[in-house]
What does this fold into?
Amino acid sequence: MLRLEDLSLSYPAAEARAGRVDAVAASSAEFPPGSIGSIVGPSGCGKTSLVRAMAGLLKPSSGRLLVRGAPLAGIRPGTAVIFQDYGLLPWKTVEANVELPLLLRGAPARVRRARAAELLEELGLAAFARFHPARLSGGMRQRVAIARALATEPDLLLMDEPFSSLDALSRESMQDALLAARGRRAMTVVLVTHSIDEAVYLSEAVYVMTGRNPGAITAKVDAGPAAGAPRERGPSYRSEPRFLELCGAVRRALEEGAQAAGAAGRAR
Amino acid sequence: MSPRERALGALRTALAAAALVLGWAAAAALARAPFVPSPWAAAARLAARLADGSLAAHLGASAARVGLALAVTAPPACFLGLWAGRSRRVDALASPFVYVLHPIPKAAFLPVIMLVLGLGDAAKVTLISLIVFGQLYVSARDAARAIPEALIDSVRSLGAGRADLAAHVVLPAALPSLLSSLRVGLGTALAVLFLAETFASEAGLGWYIVDAWTRVDYADMYAAMAALALFGLASYLLLDLAERWLCRWRDSG
It folds into this structure.
């Protein structure tokens, strides 16, 4: 579904004279159709740049980004993105936020309203349709963001630290809400996070990203059925030994990557 | 804001007005000078002038000048400011001009403007516009610049084009700042209006105040001053109401 081939990214520095900042260096990854994959790394490793590139908001400086086998040319209608904060427009009601992507595509009001009502029902938000986001808890706001992302029936859902600003309990319930929503759809999910257990709990493959300016994907940890993880997951998986072992494997890969990056930094 | 808080706010405004009037009355009682009539004398004269319709034409002339100046200036100033806030290129082109012109006291241009545009309303409206433009431009630009990039990205990723971003993100995000700076601009506009109307005018509250002054009719002078103040207050409240209605989403927090 989504393939990164030796992808490098840079963005213009805040000061125009400083040229460009290298965010991501030669990184490769593969996200098969229908899978959930994640990219884990510490803050500042270039994760957000990677999401922006996968969303078509940032052009690769070298390497390739393929969606369904074709190079990504820009923003793509089938891709939906959920950002950590700022995803929702505070001046629009929950309902209007969910309808926005449909409105932008010129869907008639009747279709928009029906679709939004359906999604709000599915995510348990029907009672809050007329509220503004400021009146909702962080978890509910991210539910609205998920509803909005699903409004256009995307085949690829990108998430940038979607649950990072939530408390532990709402984070876990949101992870289950995401799994449930995905279970009802044929959709590939790519999740970028700094949380190891979130990545292992949700995904079939975890890519580890280390280094800084530029960061790079340095390892892949299989966390799917082939690695002994269950296909269907629920809260009990969190306490299974396999889950904890996989978290350990990701942690080791992160530490090794950080050491290698540190050594490379000293060699320079 | 709850209705209770709103009622309290209105009460406080009323108390402030009452305190001002009492202070005026005390000053009049202490000064015992003809040029400080009591607020009651001024109010009685204001009521009489409003009743016989002689102030209405002047109030209308002043309101029309300020209204026209704001109506002509606000849309382009906000448009250009918002655009500059979202585009480095537009900012680089437009902002230096605004920065160079902004600190110059444009009231000093009044003679030049009157020489070019004549002594009529065009010159007065132009002067007010020139002064208000810079204020509105700068606050529109800063408001647009303060919009988080992630918010823009998230709406772009939904398939929004430039016009969609302007309508759904930039304008609503900047609206509270725009309305605040419009209120500040209104105060400035009234101050400039007075100055402009004292030159070569035959109508307007500014002219009326100066005329009453030369006629040594102090009650009349204060009546016109009070009319100008009340006009300012009413416009201010109107903008306040507009902001409360247009930015309801902020109250629901």
